[in-house]
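Chain and backbone:
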Amino acid sequence: MPETADHPSVVRVVEAASRKGVALDIHTFAESTHTAAEAAAAVGTDVERIVKSLVFVAGGRDEAQRTYVCLVAGPDRVDVARLAVVVGEPDIRRATAREARDLTGFVIGGIPPLGHAHQVRVVMDPALDRHEVVWAAAGLPNVVFPVPPATLRALANATVAPIVEDRVDAARGPAA
């Protein structure tokens, strides 16, 4: 096993999957897989098959802060208004890098869909279901694992809902 597979962040992800009866196939790269494009290049796939785990928060100050992790395809962006409706949080916002690390226990670029330090609610965009296998971060910015979307959904205990912005093709207009 590569040296980083023994890193506590990766171990936490592997153990979280193991508790659900899933053995992860961990892939470690010398180069960064911090961005979706870097991950796709390292894995040898297209960016559509890369899972981004994006952290959002709601609440705070006078109430408990609630954390949401959104799983979306590499080229996609979360539509915050759609997410707000799905989770019933009108004042939801993107977490800062520090908040994301503090709330999940992982640094941006390595945030996995499971094994978080604190309780989070996970929302997965259905576009990931278009692929037999997708690739997600495994706790570090250079460690990933392949997983069928249905298994990803189960591992993350994710709610599936359309949460991404409509893609716009300059020649054709908004995607259907």
